[in-house]
């Protein structure tokens, strides 16, 4: 089940890239798409952490998704959900 850990890591990297796009001014509303994407990645990372033997990759994916959710949420609050 090492494949699930790699999948969660890739999902976390994509969530961080989406968060970086959402930080750019006038692209803040992109976080409305990225936060649910990162939540799914968080769920996959938890599943990978429970089932997989490569826990380091799953933990990294979990942290990346959590950071994307946290910073994306703060960005939505700061930009009033529009900007």
List the helices and strands and how they pair.
Elements: H1 2-23, H2 31-51, H3 55-78
What this model shows, in words?
The radius of gyration is 13 Å and the shape is elongated. The chain has one domain (2-78). With 83 residues, the chain is mainly α. Helix 1 (2-23) runs antiparallel to helix 2, helix 1 packs parallel to helix 3 (55-78) and helix 2 (31-51) packs antiparallel against helix 3. The chain starts with a helix and ends in a 5-residue tail after the last helix. It is built from three helices and no strands. It has helices at 2-23, 31-51, 55-78.
Care to count the β-strands? 0
Estimate the helix proportion, in percent.
over 70%
How can the largest sheet be summarized?
Answer: none
The oligomerization state is single chain
Described by the principal axes of the CA atoms, the overall outline is elongated
N- to C-terminal distance: 41 Å
What is the strand content?
under 5%
Average pLDDT, all residues: 89
Order of secondary-structure elements = HHH
Q: How many separate structural domains? A: 1
Instruction: Please give the count of helices.
Output: 3
Low-confidence stretches: none
The helix/strand class is mainly alpha
Radius of gyration: 13 Å
